[in-house]
Design a protein that fits this description.
5-stranded mixed β-sheet, single chain, alpha+beta
């Protein structure tokens, strides 16, 4: 029987975190400079209300998924919002509950500090992830724009 475990990232996870995040970025056809890897890893362990946080998922002891999330203020509520920024499961374990377990872990972490709104985005072509998201969350209908 396979067992999924989700826990906060630890300093000892650096190599697996880097492998998983690199695979996530590759999926989205993105590359980042070494400086961004370094500062992101540092920020994941920096105390502060608005610093990013992360979870790693293991399946039978092997790292197979990760998520990054962060809290931010809102003009629409007294409580912060939680933005689930990155979510990734190794392709060979997709459909086994890794993504759902990571989303649940973020939701529970947010609830512990009184944050009710957890949200994220995905690319419209990410059909595999969208099947999961349509099952566990409400699609808001908002369309993203940016000034990059």
């Amino acid at each position: 029987m396979t067992e999924i475990a989700v826990r906060p990232l630890a300093q000892s996870d650096h190599a697996e975190w880097r492998r998983l995040w690199t695979d996530y970025l590759t999926f989205y056809e993105t590359r980042l400079p070494e400086e961004v890897y370094a500062v992101t890893w540092k920020r994941l362990f920096t105390a502060g209300e608005f610093e990013p946080k992360g979870f790693i998922a293991t399946l039978d002891g092997k790292a197979v998924g990760l998520t990054h999330y962060l809290y931010h203020r809102s003009c629409w509520a007294e409580q912060n919002n939680c933005y689930l920024q990155d979510l990734f499961a190794d392709p060979e374990v997709r459909g086994k509950g890794i993504g759902a377990a990571l989303i649940k872990a973020v939701k529970e972490a947010a609830e512990k500090i009184g944050v009710k709104n957890v949200y994220w985005m995905t690319h419209e072509t990410n059909a595999t992830a969208r099947k999961l998201y349509d099952h566990v969350a409400r699609r808001t209908g908002f369309i993203e724009y940016d000034l990059l």
